[in-house]
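for the writeup, i need someone to sanity check this before i put it in the appendix. the sequnce is what the collaborator sent (i think, or maybe the updated version? ugh). structure was predicted straight from it, no edits. if anything looks off just tell me and ill rerun, i have time this weekend
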Amino acid sequence: MCGRLRCCLVYEYEQYVAAKKTLPKAGKRIGTPHGEGRVRDVRVLRDSVLVDVEGQYIEVFRHEFEPLEELEALQKKAAAGCAKHEGGGCDCGAK
């Protein structure tokens, strides 16, 4: 055994792991063209996720969904204002 196949598999594994980091994990809420749903399976090689939308499983590709939990967290943080100052006035230099 020359080890070449093993070398190729290691290279592909690194790309697989990098691609998986950019897709939502199982259980996350996402917005799709079919409505809001929860990710049930991640299909890295197809660059998609399997989503449960109202009891129906639908494959949704990366360009078709929005990560709702991340968007809601950003909106909440933006609405909270500046946490560095008690008086509510922000003088952090972001003018």
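The mean pLDDT is 82. The first strand starts at residue 29 and ends at 32.
thx in advance!!
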